[in-house]
Amino acid sequence: MEAIPFDDRDGVIWFNGEMVPWREARLHVLSHALHYASCVFEGERSYAGKIFKLTEHSQRLALSAEILGFELPYSIAEIDAACIETCKQNDIIDGYVRPVAWRGSEMMGVSAQATRINVAIAAWPWPSYFSPEARMKGIRLKTSNWRRPDPQTAPVMAKAAGLYMICTLSKHAAEAEGYDDCLMLDWRGRVAESTGANIFLVFDDGKLHTPTPDCFLDGITRRTVIDLARQRGIEVVERVIMPGELKDANEIFLTGTAAEVTPVGEIDDLKFSVGEITQWMMEDYDKAVGKEDADAQSAAE
After folding, report:
1. Residue 174 sits in which domain range?
2. Are 116 and 162 within one domain?
């Protein structure tokens, strides 16, 4: 089935405080963000009509903007309300929400202090990020040649558009070889994350190990899963993880708003099973976000 282009859909988009017909929500070709990546965004999920951890996402959007040197022209409460209203106006019960903020076209050049800060919010139905079949048996990752940058060379703690350029390059290269996604190392050669999700590993000690997020996002889903694991009595260890340790892992999974909790079945030539702890985290996360309620509601309809 052919995908529907994202610029040619029915519905509305919240654009600088107003609901605009979907096809009319446009920006100028000389917008600063397009040329100089002065753009931040969020990815959120709505389950059974409720956006999971909405305020945390709105707060991170504001923080990302601050890191990139600009201030959102709306409060956290206003962004929250706009996200909720955008879902309502588009009849989104289970879907994806994308707030985005960027510098406009009032100035063109590296320095753009007088540009308008624009904010838009779109929402649309969203299936699984990876296919259900891939999630059940574990997705396939290939180690990327691109690496997460040194915090002294990029604003790594912002969810900024420019930081995802190497993710697109990595994922395209992996998909061309039949993989689902990439494992990304950091500039020191340490395990970091995938192209859009954090990573967890289970070793013989039964603990949940995850890289210290010192050059990539400490994801909201990552923190949620850490809390869920501790509620089960599973010890979580945040530490340096080297690629050579992957062969000793029994289970590996990814976490993210889009990925949710997704098992990893392969990394390069290494294979892993979808084990008990991974299954627990998948089940616990589904309960935490209200996915079971959403599934029940869909079945009832």
Report:
1. 132-291
2. no
3-state helix, strand, coil in the chain (%, to 5): 35, 30, 40
**Do residues 230 and 118 share a domain?**
no
Count of domains for the chain: 2
- 158 vs 134, residue with greater confidence: 158
Q: List, for residues 76-91, the tens digit of each pLDDT value.
A: 999 999 999 999 999 9
Supply the pLDDT for residue 300.
47
CA 263 to chain centre: 16
CB atoms within 10 A of CB 298: 11
Out of 159, 207, 287, 291, the active site residue is 159
The number of C-alpha atoms within 13 Å of 248 and in the hemisphere containing its C-beta is: 10
What SS3 string covers 180-221? CEEEEEECCCCEEEECCCEEEEECCCCCEEEECCCCCCCCHH
* Of residues 122, 106, 100, 98, the one with CA closest to residue 31: 106
Residue 159 bears catalytic tag: yes
- Does the pTM surpass 0.85? The reply is yes
User: Does the pLDDT at position 233 exceed 60?
Assistant: yes
